[in-house]
Amino acid sequence: MLDKEGRAVPDAVVVLYPASPGAPPVASKVTIGQQRMRFLPPVTVVAPGSTLHFTNLDRWDHHIRGTTAALGFADPRAGADFELRLAGAEAGASGGEAEVTVDKPGPILLGCHLHSSMRGHVFVSDSAWTVKTDDDGIARFGAVPEGAVQLRVWHPEQLVELPRRNLQVGAAPVLDSVQLSVVPRRKRS
Ligand SMILES: [Cu+2]
Q1: How much distance in Å is there from the Cα of 118 to the middle of ligand 1?
Q2: How far apart are the first and last CA of the chain?
Q3: Which of 60, 130, 151, 164 counts the most CB atoms within 10 A of its CB?
Q4: Neighbours of 159 (CB within 10 A)
Q5: In angstroms, what is the span from residue 23 Cα to ligand 1's centroid?
Q6: Which of helix, strand or coil describes residue 78?
Q7: Is the same domain home to 59 and 97?
Q8: Is 90 within the bounds of a domain?
Q9: Cα separation of 63 and 153, whole Å?
Q10: What separation in Å is there between the alpha carbon of 35 and the centre of ligand 1?
Q11: Distance 22 CA to ligand 1 centre (A)
C-alpha cells in the first residue's frame, strides 16, 4: 500500500472477497486502550458480532463515542452509535472499562467528547480475509481460496473509496500493489 507520493501506508485495511469464501469470519473480543490521548491500536479489525472492550489507561476521564462512518468521517452534530464514559485511573486503581458489541459491517469512527484530537477506527469486516498493513505498508494473506478474488482497500483518509480490484489467485503467490489518491498524515512518534 502506497500513498499518492509513493510512500508506504501503515494501518490501511485490506479486504479480500474470494468467490468461494467458505466459513464467515469469527467474532472475537478485542481490547482498545485509551492511553495518552490516543486509541491503542489506532485501527482495529473485527468480524460482525465482536465485542470491543474499551479500557482507560489515562489518569483523566474519557468520553468515547463511536459513529458509523462510511467514509471515515462523521458529522459531529449527528448522534453517536454508542457513547461510553470512562473514568480515569486513580493511583493504584485501574480506569474505567466498558464493552460494546458491533454487528454492522463497515468502518466506525472513534472519538472523545472531552479531547477533540482523539481519533481511532474500528473496521467491522464481513470477510475472514481482512488485515491491516504493517509499518512497511504490507498486508499478507495466507490460505486464500483459489480462483477469482475481489480486493478492497480502506483507509480513513481515503474519502472516495478506491474501486475494488479483481485478482486471480492460484497455486503461486500473488503480489499486488495499491496506491491511495491521498497522502495520509504522518503518525505522531
Ligand atoms: Cu478523551
Answers
A1: 7
A2: 20
A3: 130
A4: 11
A5: 38
A6: coil
A7: yes
A8: yes
A9: 30
A10: 9
A11: 40
Q: Which amino acid is at 160?
A: V
For residue 175, the tally of other CB atoms under 10 A from its CB is 7
Helix (H, G, I), strand (E, B) or coil at 45: strand
d(CA 134, CA 12): 8
Q: Is residue 62 part of a domain?
A: yes
> What is the tens place of the pLDDT at every residue in 122-172?
999 999 999 999 999 999 998 899 999 999 999 999 988 899 999 999 999
Can you give the residue range of the structural domain that contains 12? 1-23+129-183
Residue 58 is predicted with a pLDDT of: 94
Q: Please tell me the predicted confidence (pLDDT) of residue 129.
A: 96
CA of 65 from ligand 1 middle (Å) equals 10
Q: Is 18 helix (H, G, I), strand (E, B) or coil?
A: strand
Q: How far is CA 161 from CA 13, 78, 155, in A?
A: 12, 22, 8
CATH of the domain at 151: 2.60.40.1120
Checking if the pLDDT of 4 tops 70, the result is: yes
Do 154 and 76 lie in a common domain?
Answer: no
